[in-house]
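$ ./design --mode recover --in tokens.txt
reading tokens...
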């Protein structure tokens, strides 16, 4: 029927919010508040060491705007070719949920 229906709450709603925050470039789209989204600009194509340190700070800053998120922990990094993957745990008021992002590095 091409309709969107249903509702989610709790940990599923927070996981959905995390996905949206990490996939919206901060300060780029007027439809979102200035504090919404992740600042990816300046990371792509950089040194993997710089990207890893900045990624942790930027992810924590972007996600902790949501009151349901208590913190981010267990950061781990891996590289494969020109891709740096960061895995981490999002600690929420409903429990913990894993998440992963990837950045193309030099």
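writing sequence...
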């Amino acid at each position: 029927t091409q309709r969107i229906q249903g509702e989610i709450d709790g940990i599923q709603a927070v996981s959905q919010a995390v996905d949206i925050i990490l996939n919206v470039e901060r300060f780029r789209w007027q439809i979102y508040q200035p504090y919404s989204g992740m600042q990816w600009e300046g990371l792509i194509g950089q040194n993997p060491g710089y990207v890893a340190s900045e990624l942790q700070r930027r992810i924590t800053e972007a996600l902790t705007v949501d009151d349901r998120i208590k913190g981010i922990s267990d950061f781990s990094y891996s590289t494969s070719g020109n891709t740096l993957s960061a895995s981490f745990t999002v600690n929420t008021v409903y429990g913990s949920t894993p998440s992963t992002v990837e950045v193309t590095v030099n």
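exit 0
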